Hints:
Number of strands: 4
Largest sheet: 4 strands, antiparallel
CATH class of the domain at 2-51 and 63-74: Alpha Beta
Mean pLDDT: 79
Order of helices and strands: EHEEHE
Amino acid sequence: MIKASLCCDDRPDLLSDLTKALRSARGRIRKAEMATVGGRTKSVLVIQRRNEGSSTGGDEDLEMLRRALKAVLDKPILPASGRMLPGNKRPRLFSPAHRH
């Protein structure tokens, strides 16, 4: 099990993007705590790794998960006009920690 904390601007497709990112990294959400205040969202996810058929090691799996979650955080917010909105805060990803 891995615990990851994320903080970023709230957007309509955030949950969908998180789900897709975790699937691509062979992860499954076991528990999620999310809070949105003032247009920002903080998510604490407990993720179970699915290693079936994986030839990579534990560190490589964690790096794959970190990259997938970072891609979600780095996705720009596009309003209906198609122009990128300036963010007043940068997205943050806290390093995943192993849970035993």
